[in-house]
Amino acid sequence: MKKLRIGMLASSVILLAGALNAQTIKRIKDPHIVGQEKRQVFQEWGDWQPKGKYFLGIQYNYHYTMVWGWLAPNRNKRYKDGDDIRPLSVTGLQNQRYATTLIQEDRTDKILEHAEVTHDETFDEYMHVSALGVEADPLYILYYKRELRDCQNLVGFGWTNPFTKLGMTSETYKTNQRYGILETLKVDAEKLEAKYQMARNADMPRGKRILLYHECLLDLRKMKKYVDYLNRQSSNRIKAEKRLARLERMKKSSGTITRERRDAEIFMDVLMSNPMQL
Fold it and tell me: Residue 68 burial (CB < 10 Å; 0-12/13-18/19+)?
C-alpha cells in the first residue's frame, strides 16, 4: 500500500512538471515566415522580409542586402522582381484550374442533360418500333387480335383436312386433292402465316405494323372467300355426280337416252375437263 502511494505521488509530480514546462513555451512569430506565407496564398505578393532600412538614401540593413539586395543570389532577385506566381492569386494557376473545373462541370451537366433527353427519346422511339409492345397495342387488342386469330397455325398438320381454319369441308378437300388446287392454296396460306408472324415479331413503326395487319386481314378474307367458293363447287360437283350416276342406272334399266341425261353428261365433261375454272 505504501509503494502504491509513492507511485501515485511520483506520477502527480511528473504531470505537474510537464504542465509547468508547457506553460513556459513561447509562441514564435517570425515576420520572415509570415511574409513567405503571404506570398504563397491570396493575401498579397510582397511583404519582402527583411525590409530595407535607408539613411540619406543609403540602404544599411545587412540582412536585406544579403536576401534581396545587391549581395543576394540572382534567383532571389528574379523571384522578387518577377511575376506574381501565387497559386491562389486572382490570375493564379489554382484559381484558373478552379474556374476551368466550374466550366467543365457546367458542360458536363449540359452533356448529361442532353444524354438523358437523348436516352428518353431513343427509348420512346424504340418502344414505338419494337415488337415488345405488340400485345399492349389498343387497336390490336380491340380488333386485329380477334380478326386475325385464324392466322396462327393457319395450315394444320395431317391428311384429314389441313385447311379447317379456312372453312374448307372434308368433302371439298377430298374432291380437290387430285387437281393441284390445294398445293397452291397451301403455299398462299404459309405466306400469309409468315407475314402475320413478321407483323407481330419484327421491329417496325406502329403505322407500318397496322398496315401489315390490315393486309393480312384482306388476304385472309380473300382466301376464306376462295375456300367458300371451292366448297360450293365441290357440293355442286357431288350433286351432279350423284345425278349422273342415277341417270346411268336409269339408262341401264331402260336402255333409253333422255335429254336430261345428255345435258348432265355434257356438264360433267366440261366440269371434269377444266376443274381450275371453278
Answer: buried
Q: Are 60 and 104 in contact (CB under 8 A)?
A: no
Beta-sheet strands, E only, within 125-245? none
Lookup: cell for 220 = 385472309
| Domain range enclosing 101 | 92-129
pTM here is 0.50
Whether 146 and 213 have beta carbons less than 8 Å apart is answered as: no
Q: Are 118 and 199 in a shared domain?
A: no
Residue 267's CB is within 10 A of a number of other CB atoms, namely 15
pLDDT in tens, 22-70: 556 677 788 888 888 888 877 778 888 888 888 888 889 999 999 988 8
Q: Are residues 176 and 245 in the same domain?
A: yes
Four-point Cα dihedral 160, 164, 167, 171, nearest 10: 0
